[in-house]
Structure formats: structure tokens, C-alpha cells
């Protein structure tokens, strides 16, 4: 028998409005922004120097470096795909097929806090990327440096886009009583 929850245990749920079109487009764009760098790293895992000189590529030929690049590529793409949860129904109610937690409502702060921390962290990490070409890259060929710079430049958008989507999610999912006050 399921016990009844008091209003203190369960915050007032929203029948949240659908996300704005710009948020949906932005969430779909994030995995596409991350994909080129992941593919570039996967090429290095497969032994392609990907713009490095012969001497510059040597450190990437070790099994540890290959495992790191493979893991980094997969984790980055999975994290980028999580941004879709901020605009999809599964970001508010977990899918029923999930064991134990399926069908439960997602507490908005459980999504907002990690997404906001991620947005700030990504913004800080990639803030210097526009100056890629201002620094020498002696371990890369000139064409390799150009290609890497072009592939990594879109990552500058990852943090700000995630931040905007997070703010949109927060506004849509906060309890009615808080929305009415604003």
C-alpha cells in the first residue's frame, strides 16, 4: 500500500509549459558541438596523428593515453546528450523502464544545480579557446594547428548554451507558488 505524501514532502508540481523552441534547438546543438572534437580524439586512438608532428604524436601512442582519449570522448558526448533532459519529458519524470526510480519526478534542483555547475565549469574551461592561434604549438603541423583550432572553437558555446537551457528549465519547473510570486 502506498502511503500518501504530505505537501511538505512533495513540492507543488508544475504542469510545466513546453520548453521554448530556442532551448530545444540549443539542447540539440550541444551534442553536435562536442562531436567533432570527440571524433578527432578517436582518430588519434586509431593511430592517425590528427595534425601532430611525428615526434608530437609519440605520447598519444601509449595504451594509457589511448584509453584516456577514448574515455574522454565518450564521457563528453554523454554529458552533452544530458542537456537534452532539460528540454525533454524525461528531464522532469524519469522513464518508467528505469529500475527502482522509473516514473518518479525529478526534483528540479537535482537537475538545475549540476547543470549550472557544469555550465560555469565549461565556460571557464573553454574561455581561452578563441586565442588558440596566439600560442605556439610546436608539436603540431601548421595545418594540424589550424584544424584543431577550428574543431575546438565551437566548445566555447557549450557552457553558455547549457547555462541558458538550465535557466529555461529552472523557470519552467519551479513550483507554481514560486512562479506566481514573480
From TrEMBL:
Disordered: annotated segments: 1-20
Keywords attached to this entry: Membrane, Transmembrane, Transmembrane helix
TM ranges: 29-52, 67-87, 108-134, 146-169
Composition skew (Basic and acidic residues), residue ranges: 1-11
Protein's UniProt keywords contain Transmembrane: yes
Name of the featured protein: Uncharacterized protein
Amino acid at each position: 500500500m502506498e502511503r500518501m505524501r504530505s505537501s511538505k514532502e512533495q513540492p507543488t508540481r508544475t504542469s510545466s509549459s513546453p520548453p521554448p523552441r530556442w532551448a530545444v534547438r540549443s539542447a540539440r546543438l550541444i551534442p553536435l558541438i562536442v562531436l567533432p572534437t570527440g571524433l578527432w580524439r578517436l582518430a588519434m586512438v586509431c593511430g592517425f596523428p590528427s595534425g601532430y608532428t611525428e615526434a608530437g604524436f609519440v605520447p598519444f601512442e601509449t595504451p594509457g593515453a589511448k584509453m584516456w582519449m577514448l574515455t574522454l570522448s565518450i564521457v563528453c558526448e554523454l554529458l552533452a546528450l544530458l542537456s537534452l533532459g532539460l528540454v525533454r519529458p524525461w528531464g522532469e519524470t524519469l522513464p518508467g523502464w528505469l529500475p527502482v526510480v522509473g516514473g518518479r519526478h525529478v526534483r528540479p534542483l537535482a537537475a538545475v544545480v549540476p547543470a549550472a555547475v557544469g555550465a560555469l565549469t565549461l565556460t571557464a574551461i573553454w574561455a581561452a579557446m578563441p586565442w588558440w592561434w596566439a600560442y605556439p604549438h610546436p608539436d603540431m603541423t601548421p595545418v594540424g594547428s589550424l584544424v584543431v583550432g577550428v574543431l575546438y572553437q565551437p566548445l566555447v558555446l557549450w557552457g553558455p548554451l547549457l547555462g541558458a537551457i538550465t535557466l529555461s528549465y529552472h523557470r519552467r519547473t519551479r513550483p507554481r507558488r514560486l512562479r506566481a510570486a514573480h
